[in-house]
Design a protein that fits this description.
The protein has three domains: 95 residues, Winged helix-like DNA-binding domain superfamily/Winged helix DNA-binding domain (Arc Repressor Mutant, subunit A, Orthogonal Bundle), CATH 1.10.10.10; 243 residues, Type I PLP-dependent aspartate aminotransferase-like (Major domain) (Aspartate Aminotransferase, domain 2); 100 residues, Aspartate Aminotransferase, domain 1, CATH 3.90.1150. Helices cover 44% and strands 13% of the residues. It is built from 18 helices and 14 strands. It has a seven-stranded mixed sheet, with helices on both faces. It has a four-stranded antiparallel sheet with strand order 11-12-14-13. Strand 5, helix 10 and strand 6 form a beta-alpha-beta unit. Helix 8 crosses helix 15, helix 9 packs parallel to helix 10 and helix 16 packs parallel to helix 18. The longest helix is centred in the C-terminal third of the chain and has 28 residues. 39% of the residues are buried.
Length: 484
């Protein structure tokens, strides 16, 4: 009888053992625990002896005894002196089984409104024409490694503990100097905050400035991640259609009630690529001051301008009064760094710090310390100069390939900045359907309509920075063959 009872365990143990997951003791423990919780072993049922189990399963008796002792200690089994081993009689096994009509969990409205951005990303793949990715093969990795070793040798202790939610002082000082010199940003180390990427900056800003129901103006088309951050905070979004000069402050002036904030990309409008002219910048700032509107300036790839030096930031014209300036190192260096920054008007610093501390405490110290040295020693400026030459060449190669192979299909929107090219379909076809077909053909493209709120647009966003000229040429040919 004991032999037949022990034989029941063979069928449960074999699938777990075949996975090779953990030691034999762990595998036996998992098999018996699963049988108990699944109801295959009833409450109060007697189990075979450890000797019988060991014989049937081909295990050492010590292995079986150790697994049984774990299950007994955790309350799944009980041992009765002189009677043997039993399944615990007081386990609420029925309560542990999922109901047959199991329904999805009820989520908060904020969670339901959050973007499904992870579905658009392919962490293991880098395929033409992936957006927002720098040339990782051109990054000075050996230099970064040397700075890392020097930094950790010099100050290993203080980087192991809890960090300042504002960010490492050395990095904030280096950034304040760099932004003032390169972008005309008005700031000090006290108003520079280090965050875990630009998306966290936008999320924290939305929670800092908006209550549910507050109005926020957004570009149309515009960056979906910004819209999602605002919507997740409960904002009522008002799309402002951009024209050939970008965001129109006259439309903003006509909104009633006045929006609490306006979020835009003045240096390189995403995704269409135009630059907001000085006249509109000044009009926008005047409107913001007169009606108490906060302006969020997302300067996501301002460093890469091919028709001249980077423009002065809108924040610099404002003097740091109504503009919150957001930047990231994901596109300048590499996305795995997960560091960005915000330059805040001084009255907003304390509130932002409270939210940052509640969100994740602080950004990791070691990457900040290495980055601070990278900036302070002039390597960031040097790297940007090199990449500007490389990206200009790759952009030119992409434009030439489109003209050669796809002139009758696509119309490029010319822009003198950025890491992607926006093209529109001459025939106005369904860009989402085209994007899916291109995805199946091994290309990563974003449909232009994805970034629009109330406008009818049809086109594609083609990232070029991460791909050599020959690869771009071949990718355009593949793209054309699919579209035709």
């Amino acid at each position: 009888m004991a032999r037949r009872a022990a034989g029941r365990f063979v069928g449960w143990f074999r699938p777990v053992r075949n996975t090779g997951s953990g030691t034999l003791q762990d595998q036996l423990y998992t098999a018996i625990r699963r049988a108990v919780l699944g109801g295959e072993l009833a409450a109060g049922e007697r189990l075979p002896s450890s000797r019988a189990l060991a014989s049937d399963l081909g295990l050492g008796r010590n292995t079986v005894v150790a697994a049984v002792e774990r299950l007994t200690a955790e309350g799944y089994l009980t041992s009765r002196r002189g009677a043997g081993l039993f399944v615990a009689a007081d386990l609420p096994v029925e309560d542990l089984r999922p109901p047959a009509d199991s329904r999805p969990p009820i989520l908060s409205r904020r969670s339901a409104a959050a973007p499904d951005l992870h579905a658009e990303r392919e962490p293991a793949l880098l395929r033409p024409f992936a957006l927002g990715t720098a040339s990782l093969d051109a990054f000075p990795l050996e230099l970064w490694r040397r700075l890392a070793v020097q930094t950790l040798r010099r100050r290993p202790g203080d980087l192991l503990g809890y960090g300042d939610p504002r960010g490492l002082p050395a990095l904030r000082q280096a950034l304040a100097t760099y932004l003032a010199d390169s972008r005309g940003v008005v700031c000090s180390p006290e108003t520079v905050m280090i965050v875990s990427g630009a998306q966290q900056a936008l999320d924290l800003i939305a929670r800092l400035l908006l209550d549910p129901g507050d109005v926020a103006a957004v570009e149309d088309p515009g960056y979906a991640g910004a819209r999602d951050a605002l919507a997740s905070a409960g904002a009522r979004l008002v799309p402002v259609a951009v024209d050939n000069q970008g965001f129109d402050p006259a439309i903003l002036a006509g909104l009633s009630p006045a929006p609490k904030l306006a979020m835009l990309t003045p240096s390189h409008q995403f995704p269409l690529g135009m630059t907001l002219p000085a006249s509109r910048r000044l009009a926008l700032l005047a409107e913001a001051r007169s009606r108490g509107i906060w302006i969020v300036e997302d300067d996501y790839d301002c460093e890469y301008r091919y028709g001249g030096p980077p423009l002065q930031a809108l924040q610099g014209l404002d003097g740091g009064e109504r503009v919150l300036y957001v930047g990231t190192f994901s596109k300048v260096l590499f996305p795995g760094l997960r560091l960005g920054y915000v330059v805040l008007p001084e009255p907003l610093v304390d509130g932002f710090l409270r939210l940052k501390t509640a969100a994740d405490g602080f950004a990791p110290g070691w990457p900040q310390a290495i980055l601070a040295e990278f900036i302070a020693q002039g390597y960031l400026a040097q790297h940007i100069r090199r990449m500007r030459v490389l990206y200009r060449r790759r952009r030119s190669a992409l434009l030439t390939a489109i003209e050669r192979h796809a002139g009758d299909l696509l119309v490029p929107r010319l822009s003198e900045a950025g890491l992607h090219l926006t093209v529109e379909f001459r025939d106005g076809r369904d860009d989402k359907k085209a994007s899916r077909a291109l995805q199946e053909a091994g290309l990563t493209v974003g449909p232009l309509s994805r970034y629009a709120v109330a406008r009818g647009l049809s086109g594609l966003l083609l990232g070029f920075a991460a791909f050599p000229e020959a690869e771009l040429e071949a990718a355009v040919q593949r793209l054309v063959s699919v579209l035709r």
